[in-house]
Amino acid sequence: MKSILSKIKTKNQYVISIISIGLVSVLCLLIRDYLDYKIVGYILLVVVSLLAMFLDIFPVLMSAVVSALILNFFFIKPYLTFHINDAEDSLLLFLFFFIALINGVLTHKIRKAEKILQIKEVRSNTMKLYNALLDSLSHELRTPISAIMRAIDTIQSETAPISESNKHKLYSEIEKASLRLNHQVENLLNMSRLESGVVHPKIDWCDLEELIYNVLDHLKEDLKFHKIVVQLEENLPLFKLDYGLME
């Protein structure tokens, strides 16, 4: 499927390239009597440069070849033939073709280099965010593990016997910490699945206010000793996101 889409995209680029050169050539042809062919060459060169900013290399190279042929056939005397009487015109046409090719290739390479830099920057930012999330999760993992270990140590302690009611409280703390630990492990697994592409975000319209208060409701036990203030703009629009993952 990707290869088919890629072929369609490439075909569209060739069509765009031909149409762009053709339209500019027709416009120049209408005022050919008032334009020197050198000016037409400059105009076509600009068109090739613009195409190189948006299209792949081969459509750009084709536009350079087609523009050189059009310049020769329609704008260099004798018209409607590829024969050139003047050696200077032949040299200028060769230079135009050479410059168009070089310009197209260089522009494409610059654009490609910019894309590579953007990808590297995105990857760097992603890794920073990923490391920050891992640091946060590692801290979140230590908290329930410590709570479980303390409760177990207290229950197993032989120096200070504890009542049954206190044991039930400790068991309840172990259960809560275990659920919290399980939740954090699930978060780590989801991060790994997202990174590997196994899990894909299910994007849909969501109410951000509902999401925030739902998260606060899930964390009410952890936040019972904290004062949480939520400030939201009135009439917030819906947002497209994966509700479960964002939560």
Protein model, in words:
This protein is mainly α and 247 residues long. Among the domains are: 2-117, no CATH class; 201-247, no CATH class. 74% of the residues lie in helices and 2% in strands. The protein has seven helices and two strands. The protein has helices at 2-30, 37-52, 57-75, 87-156, 164-196, 208-218, 243-246, and strands spanning 204-206, 239-241. The chain has a two-stranded antiparallel ribbon. Helix 1 packs antiparallel against helix 2 and helix 4 (87-156) runs antiparallel to helix 5. The longest helix has 70 residues, at 87-156.
Quick summary:
The chain has helices spanning 2-30, 37-52, 57-75, 87-156, 164-196, 208-218, 243-246; strands spanning 204-206, 239-241. It has 247 residues and is an all-alpha fold. Among the domains are: 2-117, no CATH class; 201-247, no CATH class.
Question: What tags apply to this protein structure?
Answer:
2 strands, mainly alpha, 2% strand, 7 helices, disordered N terminus, 247 residues, two-stranded antiparallel ribbon
